[in-house]
Fold ABC-type cobalt transport system [Leifsonia xyli subsp. cynodontis DSM].
Amino acid sequence: MIRVNPVAKLLAAAMIAVVLVLSVDWVSALTALVLEIPLFAALRVPLRPFLIRAALITVAAALTAVTNLFYGEPAGTVHWHFLLINVSDGSIELALAMFLRVLAIALPSAVLFIDVHPTELADGLGQVLKLPARFVVGALAGMRMVGLLRQDWEYLGHARRARGVADHARVRRFLGQAFALLVFALRRGTKLATAMEARGFGAYPTRTWARPSTFGTSELALIAGAAVIATAAVVVSVTTGHWDFVGGR
């Protein structure tokens, strides 16, 4: 996959998402979805990770579509009615629009960040977007600690069983262990914050960065491509008369 600054990927995904949530129609979503495929190909997205993430997103989109199909506001001809379920022309169109919309919004957000490391994203947020170093570095440290929660959970379970306090009452055992994990996480977070503060990680107003985060032609090209996708989706939807602004519903 072509190396692009994570900030550019974040801005591109946000640009497409913001435009698509402004309307509830299937034309703009389908247009954006079709144009996203060449964008992924240009970035040389790995096929296997793309198919895995696309499959998961498709399942989520299908569940959303089924909900809107059965419980959407009825409009036009009602094809099937059972208790609270109403399948009509309006609910079918809404289900199709929501299915395509979830795909068009979620795919860029998931696919573009396949090879992004949290440290690279933090460097970009701090150097390119000029976000406060305290917030950026603190969030990065928190994300790095999330991976330890599962290991801590296992260790707590072993320790509690060794002391004989986890042999009965599964629900009570789970709640007690969850509280212990919360306390442990708070203590670790406090110690980590103190250590980072002592080492100057949150230096104000400026601080140095070990890895420079550059923003050049590739990043501008990606943002321009996202702008073209968003603009084309709106233009095609408005031209065909399918634009359905959410504020007017």
Observations:
- Residues 131-198 form one domain.
- The radius of gyration is 24 Å.
- The first helix runs from residue 6 to 20.
- The mean pLDDT is 83.
